[in-house]
Amino acid sequence: MDLAPEQLEHLTLPEILKESVTIPKSSPKTFSLITLTLIFPLSFAILAHSLFTQPLLKRIERQSPSNPQLHQEWTRLLIFQFCYLIFLFAFSLLSTAAVVFTVASIYTSKPVSFTSTISAIPRVFKRLFITFLWVILLMVVYDIVFVASLVLLIIAVDANSLLLFLFALIVLFTLFIVLHVYITALWHLASVVSVLEPVYGIAAMRKSKELLKGKTQMAAVLVFGYLATCGAIGGVFGSFVVHGGENNGLFVRIVVGAFLVGVLVIVNLIGLLVQSVFYYVCKSYHHQGIDKSALHDHLGGYLGEYVPLKSSIQMESMEI
């Protein structure tokens, strides 16, 4: 991350990926520990989730509706799903905070260590969590609008016009996917903004929207590529490990499962690194100067270090 703003501004997708992959070489021990303690549990939980839910779902399917144990099985499933979501969101935010903070420290030539990263996470986590809540609210509103649109489409379209209905359905689902990718890109960039700038929550989302201008297509390709890769890994895991018990032996399932978890760990790490690099690319594209000394002091503030008074602790002056 020793590129000048002029170089960052013109980075292509392959160059962003290449730059992201080389970052861990600057502090291999720190990134190894972050991967082992945060990204690995997150990746393992994502894939192993179906291993635990599948037996519960099978038991529910076998139960008679009048069986009193059915209620208990549903309760176990809901409790497990709730705990899984809490774990997933917590480790997702923790991993984001750790990687973004570490990459920024390397960018500003600040001493990097796993201890300093972990020490900064508690203050960073609060900002990320508030931003995450706003994103969740946006997603809920978006899903409600989509479902309402789908219901209106079913009511409005003539049942005899099957071709017209299918065309409208394809358009609606395409629009849903496009907006979903855009909101995801908005969230990822807002997460970086929440760590590196004195804004969070809805203000970070507004800032993210500004930074995405001119780079929306690139962000969409990155997000879609990441989601598609994760989906493919999950699909293969489900086929070979979760539902492949009859065709594949236990040893094969363990080997394939371990391999896919390892692949997902790498994908998640690279995704977080790309997320950080893309922020600097957007900043440079909009000619928003990155004051490394101010950013250095801002990062030090998370560690309780003395932060000198400046007109802005970030790269540009703006109102919160």
UniProtKB/TrEMBL annotation:
Superkingdom of the organism of origin: Eukaryota
Coiled-coil intervals: none
Protein name in UniProt: Uncharacterized protein
Key words of the record: Membrane, Transmembrane, Transmembrane helix
Organism in which the protein naturally occurs: Protea cynaroides
Classification of source organism: Eukaryota, Viridiplantae, Streptophyta, Embryophyta, Tracheophyta
Transmembrane segments: 33-57, 78-108, 128-155, 162-183, 189-206, 218-242, 254-282
